[in-house]
Amino acid sequence: VENVKDVGNSGNVPIIASLSKLEETVIQWFQSHPSPPVAVLSDFFIGWTQRWAEKLDIPRIGFFSTRALLASVLTHLWRNVDALIDSSSQSTVEFPNLPGSPSFVKEHLPSIVRRYKKGHSDSEIIRKGMLANSKSWGCVFDSFHALEEAYLDHVKKELGHGRVFCVGPLSFMKGSESLRGVNSDC
């Protein structure tokens, strides 16, 4: 699999969990390399790479291909996942500590959280990785300040520092593949 999008939503958890098992191999490569990397830049889905950065004593920057709103929702959900599971009769989940105090119908919450199984090894890798994102040296979002000022400020407050950056929007609209080209040497 070259891209997680090719495995579909149900394939995310096994792929993320499998990648986490490469830790020792990657750490050994980092340590043996004549010019080792000076930072880790990794997707928010693989937040467990924060452990790599800590072991190597280098900073990790989490890249969020989503908006700061979703990152804030995910952080809240993972910190309170037991309450979410225990509230099976509740149809709406409230986020009183987020800007604007949003609420969402439970079925509209991210499936990666809804599919969480307490104690299941793959689920725990996901949960711990998502929580590790808040330990990152910095975060980069596919967003822009004017769109999400309140949520970006919230993320800065949650992280305890101001190293929160926007580089978006990076996503192209559907049908724009011809603008990007199809070949890649990567």
Short key terms for the protein model shown above:
UDP-glucosyltransferase activity, alpha/beta, Rossmann fold, 186 residues
Describe this structure in words.
By secondary structure, the chain is of the alpha/beta class. It has a domain at 39-144 and 157-171: Glycogen Phosphorylase B (Rossmann fold, 3-Layer(aba) Sandwich), CATH 3.40.50. The protein has 9 helices and 6 strands; from the N terminus they run ααβαβααββααβαβα. The chain has helices at 12-20, 23-32, 49-56, 68-79, 81-86, 111-114, 121-132, 145-159, 177-180, and strands at 40-43, 60-64, 92-94, 103-105, 138-141, 164-166. The strands form 2 sheets. Strands 1-2-5-6 form a 4-stranded parallel β-sheet. Strands 3-4 form a two-stranded antiparallel ribbon.
